Amino acid sequence: MSNPLTHLDTKGQARMVDVGAKAVTERMAVARGRVLMSKDTLSLIIEGGMPKGDVLAVARVAGIMAAKQTGSLIPLCHPLPVSAVSVDFRPDPEAGAVEIEARVKTVSQTGVEMEALAAVSVAALTIYDMCKAVERGMVIDKIRLIEKTGGRSGHFLREGEQPWAES
């Protein structure tokens, strides 16, 4: 018999993992990433002068929507009852960057790491899309899991990093 927590069946074919026997627990994940850009482009975002409108407000909604739809975006990912999603931004004028952090919570049988990572990724892509007419050379960078709690594997906190204060 195959390992019940693998995406491969006994014949080596892809399948969705059966999490039916796992306990329902509260789970949370925090992911972070950034979009690098020129200082002039970042100034336009901060000052609300981007031609397409309020970049960070639209990116926040896009990130939240992505977290809620991760099961439809990522093959073999479980659709989860997401109970809370926040997407926050920290413009860094010195670095010419917008830092993005997503926090996702659920009470379910599996974790929300993919939902947090999807939220950051789609928020970053939205920033790029809304600013590309001004600057095409932006870089989406360093998307990573910062923290995860709940479930059998317990607590994970990336060494050297802390989640931002919960908003």
From TrEMBL:
InterPro entries: MoaC, MoaC_bact/euk, MoaC_sf, MoCo_biosynth_MoaA/MoaC, Mopterin_CF_biosynth-C_dom
A Pfam family: MoaC
Lyase among keywords: yes
Residues the record lists as binding substrate: L76, C77, H78, M114, E115
Keyword terms, alphabetized: Lyase, Molybdenum cofactor biosynthesis
Residues covered by the Molybdopterin cofactor biosynthesis C (MoaC) domain: 16-151
Source domain of life: Bacteria
GO biological process, one term: Mo-molybdopterin cofactor biosynthetic process
Active site: D129
Molecular function in Gene Ontology: cyclic pyranopterin monophosphate synthase activity
Catalyzed reactions: (8S)-3',8-cyclo-7,8-dihydroguanosine 5'-triphosphate = cyclic pyranopterin phosphate + diphosphate
EC identifiers of the protein: 4.6.1.17
Keyword flag Membrane: no
Gene3D superfamilies (UniProt xref): Molybdopterin cofactor biosynthesis C (MoaC) domain (3.30.70.640)
Main EC class the enzyme belongs to: lyase
Regions annotated as coiled coil: none
CDD domains for this protein: MoaC_PE (cd01420)
Complex and partners: Homohexamer; trimer of dimers.
Described function: Catalyzes the conversion of (8S)-3',8-cyclo-7,8-dihydroguanosine 5'-triphosphate to cyclic pyranopterin monophosphate (cPMP).
Protein name according to UniProt: Cyclic pyranopterin monophosphate synthase
Protein species of origin: Neomoorella thermoacetica
